[in-house]
Specification:
There is one protein chain. This protein has 111 residues and is α+β, with helices and mostly antiparallel strands. It contains 2 helices and 6 strands. Helix 1 packs antiparallel against helix 2. The protein is elongated, with a radius of gyration of 18 Å.
Length: 111
C-alpha cells in the first residue's frame, strides 16, 4: 500500500473530491495548513491599527491511501484536477510506501 499526499490550494478541494467520487475513490483526508513562500508578495493585514505583511499562503493537505496498482490513477487525477506538474506555481505531490498498514480486527465493549 501507498499513501499519496498532495499540497493544493484550499479552493481546489471541491473539484478534487468531485473527480475522486466519479472514479470510485471513496476515502481521503483533508487537513488545512499554510505554506511560507518568500518569493510571493505578502497579504497585508491590520492588527490593532498596525499593518503586517504575511507571506503565508493557505493550503490544504490531501492524503489518499491506496493499493499499489491504483497509485498511477490517483496521481493522474491529482495532476489533471489540481494543475500540478513542472510548470505549476503551487502544489506538491508525494508518494510514500506504507510498510505495515494497521487494521481494525474488531472491538468489544468493556463493562
Amino acid at each position: 500500500m501507498k499513501i499519496v499526499r498532495c499540497l493544493i490550494g484550499s479552493n481546489q478541494v471541491g473539484d478534487l473530491t468531485d473527480a475522486f467520487a466519479s472514479t470510485g475513490i471513496v476515502s481521503l483526508t483533508v487537513t488545512g495548513g499554510s505554506t511560507w513562500r518568500p518569493q510571493q508578495p505578502g497579504r497585508e493585514q491590520i492588527y490593532r491599527g498596525r499593518k503586517y505583511s504575511l507571506k503565508f499562503a493557505p493550503e490544504s493537505v490531501v492524503d489518499v491511501t491506496v493499493q499499489d496498482q491504483a497509485v498511477d490513477d490517483v496521481v493522474r487525477i491529482l495532476i489533471d484536477t489540481c494543475a500540478l506538474g513542472p510548470d505549476a506555481v503551487a502544489g506538491r505531490l508525494f508518494v510514500m510506501p506504507i510498510d505495515q498498514p494497521s487494521t481494525v480486527v474488531g472491538s468489544r465493549r468493556v463493562a
